[in-house]
Design the sequence.
């Protein structure tokens, strides 16, 4: 059990430290890296309590996909410019909105923490391993029977948001040359070559 | 307390027993790759250092070790140094769950295939970090290309894995192999095997999908600013990843350590040998493809991933599921 507690505190200290660093770090890139570290250590904590499926899904979805896109966006920002406008001198006009949102989140957290039931030995790995069926199977048994409606609803919401995101960025561009593989492959000499009688000093218009 | 150290020592011993062979085989596989590449093009390939040029990679590694590591002045130093370390570590860490035989596996976890998928999807970080930290345009372009490419092909790999998992009914790699005792999944799921193989090429940035390091356009992509040992680490990580993809392919489709047919002379061959032979077979295909196929254009790559592989593997998933459901073949094994 000593080893378990050591690992539990190790991962939770890293998780708390990196989540603090996410909001205090000066460079946005470092913030994203600390966010990734946070995800990974929370994933490790999940695995430690026996929720191996959740831990792995956290790694795949958040670290493998979501954080990559975060990193992508942040890398596109001009870091030097940010340093001037955000940190030196200038006042930010996002302050009131940010304050309201953070106070709301704090209140919500307080409500949740007030109703928290502390469970003994949560950090030991034996908590979730109650029966001999695996964690994944247990989740599946509940998710596809009792909660099938919510599961499907979540899927539909995700699909809708995906369609919405595509629709927002979709625009018709003019003057784009598109390659059609089918017409390319189905070309033959008689359809590809066109013979023209060219009048002297007139020429022909190619490619309109 | 002494007990802990004893356990720790045993674990370290086991890990070393896994890591050292992998590193050696990565070196050998680089030699094999270059050799096959040469033979396809009617050249000899590396044949000077050692017998058949076997020590060529060791000589190269020695050269890299003694080269100076140059860090560009405008680079983000921490991230720049971290990138090759992350690539290499992630490539090696994934090997912990690969079963070489029924009991020869470092850690036999219940969610083995998810672990493999998670670690291989983390591989993109090394490349993005390297490309961004170099603070130069070619590495950055290479890194962006690579990130988009790896994220898109991961999606189809994920769906292919679900196809196999539907037939197995377990996330454990051992169960996946043992479920293929009667029939390797390469036969009923052959189209998925082809899609998996091509996606694995794209996921490991191998030709014809080596756009992140397209030397004609991007110098060397995300590795442009790297030199010496740091470059060698990228290179080792890349080949360890390729081997990992081959191992994944042989576990998912080629029946892992199982012999081709379970008859007398064939089942005397030790299980790890079969596994290694299958990995080598897949790697041989990788090497052949590197030699014979020209590079894709970037928009063609994206079209292949999103418009062809993704719908195709989704349709195949529905087909597999309905087949298993209607013929009542859904796995009901122990979970």
Sequence:
């Amino acid at each position: 059990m000593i080893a378990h507690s050591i690992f539990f505190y190790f991962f939770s200290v890293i998780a708390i430290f990196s989540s603090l660093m996410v909001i205090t770090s000066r460079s946005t890139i470092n913030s994203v890296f600390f966010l990734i570290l946070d995800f990974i250590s929370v994933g490790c904590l999940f695995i430690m309590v026996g929720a191996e499926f959740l831990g792995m899904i956290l790694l795949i979805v958040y670290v493998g996909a979501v954080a990559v896109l975060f990193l992508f966006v942040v890398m596109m920002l001009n870091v030097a410019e940010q340093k001037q406008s955000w940190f030196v001198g200038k006042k930010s006009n996002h302050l009131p909105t940010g304050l309201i949102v953070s106070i709301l989140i704090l209140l919500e957290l307080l409500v949740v923490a007030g109703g928290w039931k502390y469970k003994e030995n949560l950090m030991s790995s034996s908590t979730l391993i109650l029966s001999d069926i695996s964690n994944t199977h247990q989740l599946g048994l509940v998710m596809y029977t009792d909660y099938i409606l919510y599961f499907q609803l979540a899927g539909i919401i995700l699909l809708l948001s995906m369609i919405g995101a595509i629709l927002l960025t979709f625009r018709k561009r003019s003057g784009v040359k598109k390659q059609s593989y089918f017409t390319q492959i189905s070309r033959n000499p008689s359809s590809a070559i066109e013979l023209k009688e060219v009048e002297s000093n007139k020429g022909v218009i190619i490619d309109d | 307390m002494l007990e802990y150290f004893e356990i720790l020592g045993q674990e370290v011993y086991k890990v070393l027993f896994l890591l050292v062979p992998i590193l050696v085989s990565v070196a050998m596989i680089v030699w094999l790759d270059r050799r096959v590449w040469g033979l396809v093009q009617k050249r000899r390939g590396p044949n000077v250092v050692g017998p058949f040029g076997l020590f060529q990679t060791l000589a190269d590694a020695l050269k890299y070790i003694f080269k100076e590591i140059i860090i560009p002045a405008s680079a983000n130093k921490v991230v720049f140094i971290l990138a090759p370390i992350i690539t290499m570590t992630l490539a090696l860490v994934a090997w912990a769950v690969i079963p070489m035989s029924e009991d020869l596996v470092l850690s036999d976890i219940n969610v083995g295939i998810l672990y493999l998928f998670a670690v291989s999807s983390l591989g993109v970080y090394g490349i993005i970090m390297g490309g961004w930290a170099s603070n130069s345009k070619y590495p950055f372009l290479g890194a962006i290309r690579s990130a988009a490419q790896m994220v898109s092909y991961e999606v189809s790999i994920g769906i292919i894995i679900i196809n196999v998992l539907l037939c197995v009914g377990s996330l454990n790699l051992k169960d996946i192999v043992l479920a293929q005792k009667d029939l390797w999944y390469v036969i009923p799921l052959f189209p998925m095997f082809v899609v998996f193989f091509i996606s694995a090429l794209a996921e490991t940035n191998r030709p014809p999908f080596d756009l992140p390091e397209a030397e004609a356009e991007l110098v060397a992509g995300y590795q442009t600013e790297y030199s010496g040992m740091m470059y060698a680490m990228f290179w080792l990580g890349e080949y360890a990843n390729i081997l990992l993809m081959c191992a994944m392919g042989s576990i998912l489709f080629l029946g892992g350590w199982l012999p081709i047919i379970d008859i007398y002379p064939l089942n005397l061959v030790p299980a790890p040998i079969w596994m290694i032979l299958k990995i080598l077979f897949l790697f041989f295909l990788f090497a052949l493809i590197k030699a014979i196929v020209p590079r894709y254009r970037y928009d063609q790559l994206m079209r292949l991933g999103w418009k062809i592989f993704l719908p195709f593997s989704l349709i195949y998933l529905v087909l597999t599921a309905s087949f298993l459901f209607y013929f009542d073949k859904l796995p009901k094994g122990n979970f």
